[in-house]
Fold this protein.
Amino acid sequence: MSLGNFTPEAFAFGFFTLITLGGAFGVVLNKNLVRGAVWLVVSLFGVAGFFVILSAPFLAAVQVLVYIGAIGILFTFAVMLTRSMTNLTERFNSQWWLGGLVAVFLFLFMVIAVIVPVFGEMTEPTSDMVATTVDLGIALVDGNQYVLPFEVASLLLTAAMIGEIVIARGDD
Amino acid sequence: MNVLNEWAFIGVFFLIAPLLPALPIVLGGVFSPSKPNAIKQSTYECGVETVGNTWVQFKVQYYIYGLIFLIFDVEMVFLFPWALAYGQLDWFGFFAGFLFIFLLTDALVYAWRKDALEWT
Amino acid sequence: MECSNIISTFEPCLVSAGWNADIAALVAILLGVVLVASFPLLVAILLIWIERKFAARIQDRIGPNRVGPFGLLQPFADVVKLLGKEDITPAGADKVIYNMSPVVSVMAVLLIWAVIPFTPVNVGVDLEIGALYFIAVGSIGTLAVILAAWSSNNKYALLGAFRVVAQLISYEIPLALALLIPVMLAGSMSLVGIVDAQAGMWYVFMAPVAAFIFFISSQAETGRGPFDLLEAESELVAGFNIEYSGMKFAMFFAGEFMHVFTNGVLLAVLFTGGWQGPGAHSLPVLGFVYLMLKTGFWFSISLLMRNALPRVRIDQLMAFNWKFLVPLSVVNVLMISFLLKVIQEIGLAPDDPVNFVQNIPQTLVLLLGNVALFAGVMTILRNQTRQERLREEARRAEFGLAPTLAGD
């Protein structure tokens, strides 16, 4: 995809970039936390669009299901469950300059990493193979591939749930 | 229809779908009278004056359900590819999936035993 | 090229009529989207009449019978009335989110229709991940509920929304777990693939427990009786949409109606073979008729359930989900996957999956497993209920209360 050649993919890429970045700015600049959560959902939706462009529809669906359907809801819940957090209007972040500095550095680092071939020559993708969701399913439970991470993920989720119950209930 | 066209359909759908319900709302705005006044616009809570701030703190049980839901939602993400490829898997694949689900059932049993699922 | 098929193959038809290929593709997509998306909206108008007649008959009334023959034009009269209703925005509302929520609520339901196969050849779009897609877009509706309540600046609305959202997210778990079964049996997440795989045998016979779980949890997802806690008039005034009026309120309502119908379609597609039926391949319109008949079947069961059963309490609702449906659906997934491997091992799997007769042995094994599971669960439930009853009787005896029957 070259710059001179304006393809539908390029158009879609621009569109989703606009949504993602716009949503992200909305999150940062909004003083109302619930509105911020809505902007976050918009931003995450843009990321789902990127997955579609990258021919990873499964990840796009997962993005919508987990990030918008679950995490978006949890964020709004968390905001509404926290005392008087929804009515905050003043800024009390005294370390904003540190955060800004880190963000700028990270951004520069990424730009350099993408544009300048510091880490070796720019290479074409090594394989034309398009992996489908079925391949993913087979690889997940293949003894030579990802079966261990697969089970560890389950263990991690179990640990997360136990930890969540212990912390949220607190008293017992 | 190639892959891009398929998703173009979904994309256009996402743009058109909000317009269809928005149309009657806009039409309603055109045809309906609009005579707002302070009493009409006051919050409706059991017919008495509303007390205090609306955005008060709610009970944490809602959040616990939310977190348990999130865990199971992520589990789904792993189980769908497994189920999809199930016809091509052997007994090893079955036991891998079994262990995965079993470990998570543990978490559910824990939540149950700790009464985290109770609506208190 | 024949111009018979509108939704999926409109494009070659336009190209052959001398259109530019790109414009033809765009126009075809636009037409397809408008057709697919407006279908459930139009059906919803008719459904309101059916629903009201059905409810009326159950309650020994006649129902709408004044406007038009059999009151058929009643929904249109309602629409005209709603158009003239004043739209009141409460004083402290967050205007943007307040206006956006009903639209998102309807949109979440409409989006599901993009992947529904209507006939053997007519489908909005055959996504590889169709099953996951409809769960994902369906979950957007939950967000609309909580935002609607928050933006209307009303304590009761917010309290109602918290309840509803807790209900909606909880019942999404058994819904997705039950959905694993058709995906597993068909080896496909595309709804077209799942319907095609049911040419030999409907999945409702292979996995009735999964169909049961899917039906119950999808009914709960719509927030309709007996799960209509969001409309708990006695406790919450009206739930999350209390401050909405006029057309915006109507949109929430239309969304709910469409959601019920959409669930009927999904059940028909996932468990009773979608458009499959004699002669559907040669005459696609027949496939559409079959789909609507099957949808009507599931839809009427859901109407019956709504009108015949009393509303449950929130603690019962959550306990029913987390302590009954979720464990049941987990065991169901494990059982089906085990039986499928056994079937594969002893060679009962049909050589020709679309052959009805060859499917019978495998279906019998799966059906037997389902019956055994159901019987086991029912036994456990009966024992538990008995224990609970005995405990309650003992408690009453302790306080010197008269032993009572249920309903106290």
In short: Residues 118 and 288 of chain C are 6 Å apart (CA to CA). Chain C touches chain B through 88 residues (CB under 8 Å).
